[in-house]
Each structure stands twice: as structure tokens, then as C-alpha cells.
Amino acid sequence: MQWQATVGGSKGKRYGLHGNRTGARMNTSGSDSRNDAAELDRFLQVLFAPSDLVEIRVIETYDEQDRKRSRQLHRDWLARDQVFAQFDKLSQWTRAPRFGNIFFGVCPRPQRGMGKKADIAVVRTLWTDIDDCSTDEALERISRARLPRPSLVLNSGHGSHCYWVLDHPFAISSASDRQRIERLNAALGRMIGGDHTQDLSRVLRLPGFDNVKNARNGAHPTACRIAHCDDAKHSLAQIESLLPIAASDAGTAQLKSTERASPMSPALREWAMTELGKPSDDRSKRDYVVLCELHAKGVGAEEAWECVRSHSKFRDRGRSYFDTTWKAAAFNYPSENDLNWDIRTTATQRIDDENRNAHAALEHWPDPPAEAAYYGLGGRIVRLIEPHTEADPAAILVQLHVAFGNVVGRGPHFRVEGDRHFTNMNATLVGATAKGRKGTSAGRVFALLSSIDNDWCRNRVISGGLSSGEGLIWAVRDPILKREPVRAGNKQTGRVIDYEDVQIDAGELDKRLLVVESEFGGVLKVLAREGNTLSPVLRRAWDGADVLKTITKNSPAKATGAHISIIGHITRDELRRNLDDTEILNGLGNRFLWVAVRRSKCLPEGGGAIAGVERLIEELGAATAFARSLCEVRRDADARALWHKVYPQLSEGRPGLLGAAISRAEAQVMRLALIYALLDQCREIRRPHLEAALALWEYCERSAAYIFGDAIGDPTADAILAGLRQDPEGLDRAQIHQLFGRHRKANQIDRALGVLLQMGKARITREETNGRPRERWFATPVGSAWNGGGSLRPDLNSHISLNSPPVSGAQHTAVRDFAAAADSNDAALISLNSLNSQGAGSPTQVTVPGSEGLAATAVSSSRMSMGAVGDALGCEESELSEISSGRPDGEAGEEQSESEGDVEWTG
Fold first, then answer.
1. Per the count of CB atoms within 10 A, which of 264, 391, 646, 686 is most buried?
2. What pLDDT score does 832 carry?
3. What percent of the chain has pLDDT over 90?
């Protein structure tokens, strides 16, 4: 149901009003007060429950001696229906000589006499006030910001008030809850140009009454009417996931710079100054479009101001003109049909193209999982379903493993020293909105498992709701007991003779829980909040902690033996935009499998009936019953031998966000192997199970490389690297400082440059001058041979023999130095013979193609293979020419071939 009213001045037309409950008279502005009362009634019913107490204030506002003044004429607290009954009396306050404006408290008051924000106990709506803005313009801003359409829009006579009514009332139990709502209101206002109205004690105008602001000074009354109303209710978590919430949102109306502002590149700065220096018939519009472009590039307000302050009207009119224009640019990005859109010249397009090309090597979609990943029952299920669905087979496979691991519960596990690893796993599916078929793949999995354990599927699978650690614990809580006195005689006043524990909450008997977060971006926003307990609880839940609890005064719940799994769905752009680096680096991100998914095929008629699925459901049920009967599971001899070969590579560190996201490879692979074994109804983890787990983990690694790219995780280093890539001629120290508007300390930049140099993402040259040498920094090519971090794998597509022995840290350093020498084209002869831990094997010279005779000496024995040197130098082993030293021709090759096995793992 929708109700739309067109308001035009004090005698605006109103449509669709029925059920009037009063015979009120015409008011002073000439509008029909019966319709006014009906508007008031409708408004109150949408925003309040019958039992709510509404604060009413009557305030006169006027100008006196060039100052705005106000005085309160009346204040009362009324039940919702009492406000409607008092319509005539309230209307009298708006007439001469009082000219009172009728306001109401947006949030219900707990009792009479209370109106401060600390008193508020429940919130039923979010809101914002947009001054000097029509209803159509307000709805256009909301649509452009990709926010849900509000439940109510009120035309106040001088602007628009927008309300998003919540589907469930939000209870205020702490100061953090109050700050959460105020930050949401502030973020809403910031996105659509709203005013400073976020506090919980806010009073706004009631519809049905005239706006008589400044009527004492002769201003004409204007109508305050409902312009849009429907029955829509909104999820708080959904709205929260759409808003960029800054820590400084609460209590401020000033427009802030972009929360994670990117530094302005020299090319973008030069473009902005060039455009502002050109002649223009409309400087204001030209200034506006330039700021739109800077805002779209993620430049912060302060840096933008430093860039434009000496140009165009910014120089003439100062900071106030900039703030107004920047605010308009933030809220009203122009369309391509804009009259002056051609200001966005080929110069900015070139900047975009260069940035895209710099990362082209990292943008390719990861190769699909190897055939070994589809081993066993899980693979047969995916192959049977795959022809009948548009979902990505990898998405079905991963979610099947995660869901099955949760269904079997906290029984089967394997030990690593003193730790037990259970079958609870987390996975995040990353794909395009509506095109990745993330939800379709989840639906296929749960349709199967509901036939196995319908009670689990109905009661222990939750869609969304991750907002706090306390809430997660509550879903798997133990029974809650309260210590109460035992009294002799009268139970109320008798003498206390003892104490007993009384159960006040039965808790949850089933400790399994699978949370499916289709809007995982909202969870990332929650994790970024200061003081939120969700991250540590999620980490301890994945680790299999015996008891989950938080040390908070108002949260007595705890959970023993909880078995929690998470499946998240998100787009790649939203993940990159909202991911808080600390949550990857602090150990939460590496407790997730990161899986890139996309639509596998186009089925206009959808998937048909699947023949033979009943047999696989029977096998799945048998595997579930078998798994629940097990406790500790171990590897057999073959699996143990394979594990010893792959473990050094799995435990090898990787740089940047990618390295942080996959740093628990060993534990993730073994949990996957355990689930493969359980699906196979085996009491031991065998070699095929481990090989299948490695194959699936390979895809997760390739997906993580696609998702996170080569981001470092250090904001300063990432910003410098972006600046270096945008300027192929390199940057000196002064230009690097200018990337940050000179708002970064020298030691921060020194540290960031050291990180880039260590990781091989930047190189340095020194130019001789009359004084100190001038440094110039350059970005190394994306996907260059040496990626640093002590890894001999240049990328995730290098084939590494599982039978190759581990390579020492000293060999890492030597090969890195060799690669650096090759890059600088200096002659070098590096002997690795001494690195042979047993002193065996003769050295072999390796000539690198394109190095103009550069040679290195490497041990071609079981201690270091030629393939490892080739990987480090970014070339194929066949491209290296071996020059034997002290042994017959070909001996080195024979010795190497004996040390290599027939199993290869694409790391």
C-alpha cells in the first residue's frame, strides 16, 4: 500500500485519505482540518505502537535583532491515540498570537517528564532532516545513494523529513547502543545531505499542522504534510550494511572527509589544477564537477581543499564556498548527461586506464579447482547437481563441506599437539551481485541436508544477524542459573536460611549453529566498530574453544561445546571497500575460506528434476551417522608421508593481505581432509582425502589472490605503491610526501618504503647531486619475478614438486639477491655451494636468458632444484642453460630427476 500526496504551499492537495475520526474546523491556512487530522493519525500509527508515550512540544520560533530565537509554549507526554484526540487543542497553539510550531519526540519516551537521550529505551525508526529540499529531490538523492526508499517522507514546509521504520524495535541497553543509532542517523544524513538531527532526543514536526516559523515577523504559514507513505519496514542490519559509518559521526553535523581517503596522485592533482585554470562561463559548475571527480577518486576533503584553494572561486570565496561545493559533490554526483560532464576529460580517463592496466595481471579469474577436489561423495553430488543449476560448482562444493561439517557436530576431530581441530569451517563466497548465484548454490546444499537432518536445517541454520559476540553466544547458550535465597516461612520476608540456583533460561541443547550471511558486508562494518566483541568470539569459536563467553556486566550467557560455522556472501568490490585491514591481519580472515564464484551457465527455464539424487541422499545420511560415531581421527602412513612433503610449503609465509588471509593453510587443509574422510566413511585420513583437500585449497588460494590482489595491508605503503604505479617516471621523496598532502610523518613513509623494498614491489635509484644523493622510487612490474616475503613462488600458478625438500632461508636470500642483480643488469656470481647443508653435490652454473651473460652458481642436488631457481627468477626451467662444473655432462640432470616425484601441487 502506498499513499502519495502532492504538497503545494499552504493549500496543497491531499489524496487517498479516508477514515477521518473528527469533525474539526478549517484552520487558518485554509486547508481541510479533517484531512489534517487523518494525516496525523496515519503518521502516528506508522511510527508508534499504541502503548508508546509520545512527547509533544509547542515552540515558537522567530527572529529578533538579527538573531534566531525560540521559546517553549507547551510540553506534554501523551499516549499515541491521545495525541490524535488532542488535535483541535494543539491546532489552537498554531494560531495568532502564539504562532506555536508542533513538534514530537521521534523516539518513544519511557515515562512522563523524560526527554533526554539518556532516557530513551527503544528506537522504532531511523530518520534524517534535509533542509530546502523537495520530496522528489529527497527521493532522488536516496535512490542515487542506493539506499532503500523511506517508509515516510514529510514535507515540513521548508524541507523534507525522511523516516525508515524498523521491522523490529531496537532496544537501547547501553551507551554503545545509543551511539550506534546516532551514527546510523548521521551516516544517513551525510549520504543524502541531511541536517544535524541524529540524537535520540530529537523532536521534529508533526504533520497536519502548519509550519508557522517566524510568523511573528510576518512570514506566511506553510503546510506540514505527508508527501510519501507506505507500509515498508526495514532491517537495521541491512541499512547499516549500506552506510559508511565513521567513528566521528555521532554528535557532529560537519561534513567529514572520506573515511579511508586515498592520497591524491600527482597526475590527478595536475589534472584538477589544469581544469580549474581554464576559462569558463560557469565557474561554480566547473568547480563542482572537479570536486565530484576528486570525491569519486576517494580523495579526502582536507587534501582536496589544499589542492584547489588557490584556484577559481575557491581562491575568491574561501573555505565556506569549498565546504558547500564539496558537500554537494559528495551527495550529488553528476550523471553523464550533465551539461558540463565533458570536463571529465581524457586526462582522468587516462588515469583510470593506467590504474586498471597496472593491475591487469591480477584481474584474471582463477582457474577452476583441479579434478582431485571433486573426489568422493561430495564430488558425485556436485556432478549430479551441476547440469541442473546456474550455480558455480566450486560454490556448491565448498558450501557442502562447510554445512556437512556443521551437521555432524562436535565429535570427529584431529589433534595438533594439544589442540583439537573439529569440522566447523567458515567460508566467504565472493561474486557479482545477483550474477554469482551465491544464494542458488546455498539453496541446493540445504535442500539436500534438510532430508538428512530437518531439525538442524529448520532451527540451527540462521540467515543473517551477526552483530555482536554476545548475540552469537546467546544463540548457543548454556542454561542460565540465578542464585536466589531460600527463606524460612514467608517467601518474601522470611529469614534467609540458604541459597539455591534457579534456572531462569533453558538455553540451547543443540550447540550446532550455521550462520548464512547473504550480506556479509554488514558483518565487516560491525567488525570495524571499536569495542565490538564479534571478532574475538568468532576466532575462539573456529578454534573450538570449550567455553565461549564475554566479560561484560550485562551478558551472563556462556556457551559450552559450541560448534559454529559461517557462510558469507559478498561482492568483490564491497569486500575491498569495507574490509577492515586489521580484521585480516588479526587472524579472523585466515579462519575463512575465500572462494571466487560466478554463474556457470545460463538456464532460462531453471534447473529441472534431478534423477538419482535419492541414492546420494542415502549415502549422505549414512556418512552423517558414521561421522557422529567418531572421535579422534588420524592420518594413515601414506597421508602422513604426503603431509610431511607439503607442510613446509603450506606453512610458508606470504606477504600482504593475501598472505594474512591464507596464513592458516595447514589447519584449513587438514579440516578439509577430515571432512573428505568422513564423507568417505573412513576412520582414517588417507592420501586421496589429503590430495582432494589440497586441490580445493589451491582454488581457495587462487581465489584469495584474485580477491585481495597485491594489497599490502599497510595503508601508507598501499597508497605509495598506487602513486608509484601511476607515474612511470618515478617519484622522489618530496613527491611521495606530497601524495599525502604532507600529512604523513617521515618515519611512517620510511617504514612504508622499507616494506615495499623488502617485498620487491618498489625499487630505488640514487642520483648524484652537489649535496645529498636524490632518491627516486619506481614501482616494479606487477607479477615480477621476486615477490618477496621469503617465498620462492612468484605467484600461485607455479608448479612445485611435492617431493622437493624444503629450501633454507639462506637460499631464499641468495636467490633474492640474484634476482635483484639480474634486474639491475650487474654482473654477479653467487655461490650457493656452501648452502648445501651436507656439503654434497657440485655447483652448476645457471645462465639467465636476457641477462647479457649474467651467471649464478646453484647447487643442483636434492638441496635445491633448478626449478626452484627458475621460479625465483620468473622463467621456465627449460630456459636455463646448465654449465656443468666438476662433473660429466648430464649428471646434474640425472641426479635432479631422481629427487623428484610424480606428484605436483599447483601452489
1. 391
2. 32
3. 26
Q: How far is CA 831 from the centre of its chain?
A: 48
Cβ contacts of 493 within 8 Å, gap of 6 or more: 487
Q: Taking Cα atoms as reference points, which of 823, 885, 894 lies closest to residue 857? A: 885
**pTM, 2 dp:** 0.51
Which amino acid belongs to residue 557? Answer: A
| Structure-derived torsion over alpha carbons of residues 256, 261, 266, 267, reported in degrees to the nearest 10 | -100
- For residues 180 and 536, what is the distance between their CA atoms, to the nearest angstrom? 20
The C-alpha atoms of residue 331 and residue 329 are separated, in whole angstroms, by 6
- Grid coordinates of 455: 531439525
What's the CA gap between 315 and 277, in Å, rounded?
A: 12
Q: Up-side HSE of residue 882: CA atoms within 13 Å toward CB?
A: 25
- Is the distance from CB of 152 to CB of 111 less than 8 angstroms? no
The answer to whether residue 889 scores a pLDDT higher than 60 is no
Local confidence band at 852 (pLDDT 50, 70, 90 cut-offs) = very low
* Distance between CA atoms of residues 90 and 483, nearest Å: 52
Contact 498, 485 (CB under 8 A): yes
Instruction: Give the mean pLDDT of 388-402.
Output: 90
DSSP annotation of 116 reads S
- Say what the alpha-carbon torsion angle 505, 507, 509, 512 is, to the nearest 10 degrees: 170
Q: Is 426 helix (H, G, I), strand (E, B) or coil?
A: strand
pLDDT of residue 642: 94
- Detail the DSSP E strand segments found in 526-592: 547-549, 558-560, 563-570
719-757 as b/e: b if 16+ CB within 10 A: bbbbbbbbbeebbeeebbbbbbbeebeeeebeebbebbe
d(CA 776, CA 200): 53
Name the percent of the chain lying above pLDDT 70. Answer: 72
DSSP strands (E only) in 423-495: 426-430, 461-463, 480-487
Which H helix or E strand runs over 497? strand 496-505
Q: pLDDT tens digit string along 767-825? A: 777 777 788 889 887 544 333 333 323 232 332 222 233 333 444 444 444 444 433 33
pLDDT digits over 696-747, tens only? 999 999 998 888 876 776 777 878 887 888 777 888 888 888 887 777 788 8
In this structure, how many other beta carbons lie within 10 angstroms of the beta carbon of residue 289? 21
Place of cell 554537494: 328
SS3 per residue for 187-227: HHHHHHCCCCCCCCCCEEECCCCEECCCHHHCCCCEECEEE
The candidate with the shortest Cα–Cα distance to 137, out of 192, 184, 189, 188, is: 192
Q: Greatest CA separation found in the chain?
A: 114
Q: How far apart are CA 725 and CA 265, in angstroms?
A: 10
CA distances from 656 to 186, 226, 715 (A): 34, 53, 11
Residue appearing with cell numbers 514530537: 104
